């Protein structure tokens, strides 16, 4: 293996460890509440189990379908089924969490994903298609129910709202970083070392998900959004739609989420052909580890940024989106070049890999920062519904990309992603302006109230003095 990969991974690992260690020192000082620490630890353990169940499957979904003898077109339709299910069925099921409970929705995630894992044993297209539908529903629940539960429970227990950012940054650091790396190595060992076949990671994922589900069932309490019996699902979506259309802040949040995640999912399909344009042999596991450790750097850096009172999340995310756009512009302006041998990267390939790791750093910053902005601005009663409404254009976009992925060149696809990230930058800039105007307006109203109170007090004192004189 080329030393460049090892050096890149080591630099990322050291940076992630340094940032996260600094964050933990700050958090221990700022949040000495033992009850809060127990609450946070419980959530992080559960979230790590849930993400492990997801990451164990990821590297072998395509490989399993290929092992069963399906064509690339059939595999593409199976992937489209998953994203389409997340867009249609997952949006509805995820939104029911507000009415019927976030804990129940989290347990439903476990059930759907576990059943989806079991379907992988059948080399039948329609059984696997049904499994993809279940996994699509589970994906929507994973990215809405758990976030809604922890925000609702955090507020219900009266903890400091500023501590939520720390929970989110550590959740991403563990679930989308460390757990992802360990799950990838473990699934690789099951298939290649123990020779249990490409279905074995899905069995392991089912076991991990069930363990996490047991912890949820035994330790979590239920919380709700809009739990009124009179509120139907249509009314919940109506409230969410009205909220998004009436307040530009919510439309901007939705646009940033859809465009960034859409670019991220597209990048997943693009990085392999971008790094091996001439069929070079790639150590996919090591490159994946480099991406995940870069994401860990980003999540740890996000925790550091959110702990600073002088830098607001609405401000630094403008820089993040601009840098992400720059990273995905590199493959557009720097054409790929043939390497000296099939086992190494060319100079252009190394530059592309560095740019991709930079983009993954932005991904690591994006998740906890976006969760923090949503927790601050989306109403509690329809939180899951609004988050799932944001995912509708995202899933539609990914389905369109998957369907047409062979119709465009790599540079065109990367250019499109970079353009979307540029739009994210513009949306974030406008979002920051709106937040600043709201805060300035509230300060102005408070000043007006204080002035009015002072005048009233002055008038009362004058009236008392006049009465004394009489």
From TrEMBL:
Species name: Auxenochlorella protothecoides (Green microalga)
Pfam families the UniProt entry points to: MFS_5
Gene Ontology molecular functions: molybdate ion transmembrane transporter activity
Transport is among the record's keywords: yes
Transmembrane segments: 6-23, 44-63, 75-94, 106-123, 129-151, 163-187, 199-220, 250-272, 284-303, 315-333, 353-373
Function in brief: Mediates high-affinity intracellular uptake of the rare oligo-element molybdenum.
PANTHER family to which the protein is assigned, alphabetical: MOLYBDATE-ANION TRANSPORTER, SAM (S-ADENOSYL METHIONINE) TRANSPORTER
Topology of the protein relative to the lipid bilayer: Multi-pass membrane protein
Subcellular location: Cell membrane
Record SUPFAM superfamilies: MFS general substrate transporter (SSF103473)
GO biological process: monoatomic ion transport
GO CC terms: plasma membrane
Keywords: Cell membrane, Ion transport, Membrane, Transmembrane, Transmembrane helix, Transport
Protein name in the entry: Molybdate-anion transporter
């Amino acid at each position: 293996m080329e030393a460049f990969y090892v050096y890149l991974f080591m630099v990322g690992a050291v940076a992630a460890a340094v940032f996260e260690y600094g964050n933990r020192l700050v958090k221990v000082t700022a949040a000495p509440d033992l009850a809060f620490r127990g609450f946070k630890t419980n959530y992080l353990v559960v979230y790590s189990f849930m993400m492990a169940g997801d990451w164990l499957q990821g590297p072998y979904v395509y490989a399993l379908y290929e092992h069963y003898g399906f064509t690339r077109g059939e595999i593409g339709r199976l992937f489209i089924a998953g994203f389409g299910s997340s867009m249609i069925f997952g949006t509805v099921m995820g939104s029911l969490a507000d009415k019927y409970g976030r804990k129940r929705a989290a347990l439903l995630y476990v059930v759907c994903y576990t059943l989806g894992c079991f379907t992988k044993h059948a080399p039948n297209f329609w059984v696997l298609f049904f499994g993809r539908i279940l996994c699509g529903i589970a994906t929507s629940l994973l990215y809405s129910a758990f976030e809604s539960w922890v925000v609702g429970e955090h507020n219900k227990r009266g903890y400091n709202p500023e501590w939520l950012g720390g929970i989110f940054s550590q959740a991403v650091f563990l679930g989308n970083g460390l757990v992802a790396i360990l799950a990838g190595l473990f699934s690789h060992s099951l298939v290649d070392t123990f020779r249990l076949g490409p279905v074995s990671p899905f069995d392991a994922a089912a076991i991990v998900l069930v363990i996490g589900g047991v912890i949820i069932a035994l330790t979590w309490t239920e919380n709700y959004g809009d739990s009124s019996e009179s509120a139907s699902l249509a009314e919940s979506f109506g409230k969410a739609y009205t909220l998004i259309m009436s307040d530009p802040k919510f439309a901007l949040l939705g646009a940033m989420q859809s465009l960034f995640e859409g670019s991220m999912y597209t990048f997943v399909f693009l990085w392999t052909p971008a790094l091996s344009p001439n069929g070079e042999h790639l150590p996919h596991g090591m490159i994946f580890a480099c991406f995940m450790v870069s994401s860990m750097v980003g999540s740890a850096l996000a925790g550091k940024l959110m702990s600073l009172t002088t830098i607001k999340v609405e401000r630094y995310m403008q820089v993040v989106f601009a840098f992400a756009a720059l990273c995905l512009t590199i493959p557009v302006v720097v054409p790929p070049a043939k390497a000296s041998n099939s086992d190494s990267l060319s100079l252009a390939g190394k530059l592309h890999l560095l740019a991709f790791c930079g983009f993954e750093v932005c991904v690591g910053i994006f998740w906890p920062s976006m969760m923090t902005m949503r927790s601050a601005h989306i109403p509690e009663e329809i939180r899951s519904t609004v988050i799932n409404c944001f995912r509708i254009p995202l899933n539609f976009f990914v389905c369109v990309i998957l369907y047409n992925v062979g119709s465009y060149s790599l540079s065109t696809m990367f250019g499109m992603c970079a353009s979307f990230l540029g739009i994210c930058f513009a949306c974030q800039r406008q979002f920051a302006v709106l937040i600043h105007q709201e805060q300035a307006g509230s300060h102005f109203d408070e000043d007006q109230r204080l002035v009015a109170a002072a005048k009233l007090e002055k008038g009362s004192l004058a009236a008392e003095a006049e009465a004394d004189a009489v």
